[in-house]
Amino acid sequence: FRIVVLASGSGSLLQALLDAERAGRLPASIVAVGSDRVDAHALARARDAGITTFALPLTRGADRATWDAGLTALVAAHEPDLVVSAGFMKLLGETFLARFGGRAINSHPALLPSFPGMHAVRDALAHGVKVTGATVFTIDAGVDTGEILGQVAVPVADDDTVETLHERIKVAERELLVRTVTTLAGS
Ligand code: GRF
């Protein structure tokens, strides 16, 4: 069961998948890691694990559809059974969804449909919720609107900052993502 992971940031979610695979806890193999950022630390984590990486920056003023088609081709070259967006900060467009729709999942640090978008942890904290969490869902054409596959609740502490809350969410999110990918790989 071949997985391509897309990440834009530090890659701690990617690292959880890499660690699970190495520990024999993931019935799948991560065959490539891609990013929209050439300097994403997630790519360094992939390289350290001996995994092929690719990057396709979306340069300012570039045509979005061209970028989407280019990314789709880079992903397709690795013939994935599943694409996992793990902290990938770009919306995937119609070319990508035509090719991988239904076989691409995303992890989001909030209990969707609450707090979609780029600032989920900040928005949850600002709203004063006492419980938030993480959601893994199937990517569709909307923003964080796909079919929910799994969720995990995470308590909010009175003295939480965005950083402390996000770190607590990430601990639960990593387990949820490994569990969800394991289920999909086995189905
Ligand atoms: C995760 O919480 C993910 O849900 C959100 O950004 C974070 C990525 O963290 N989109 P990392 O890059 O995997 O450390």
From TrEMBL:
Q: Which GO terms describe its biological process?
A: 'de novo' IMP biosynthetic process
The EC number(s) attached to this protein equal 2.1.2.2
Q: Which UniProt keywords apply?
A: Purine biosynthesis, Transferase
Pathway per the UniProt entry: Purine metabolism; IMP biosynthesis via de novo pathway; N(2)-formyl-N(1)-(5-phospho-D-ribosyl)glycinamide from N(1)-(5-phospho-D-ribosyl)glycinamide (10-formyl THF route): step 1/1
- Residues reported in the UniProt entry to bind (6R)-10-formyltetrahydrofolate: R64, M89, K90, L91, L92, N106
Establish whether keyword Transferase is in the entry. yes
Please name the top-level EC class of this enzyme: transferase
Formyl transferase N-terminal domain boundaries: 2-181
- Annotated family: Belongs to the GART family.
Do you know which HAMAP family this protein is assigned to? PurN
Q: What is this protein called?
A: Phosphoribosylglycinamide formyltransferase
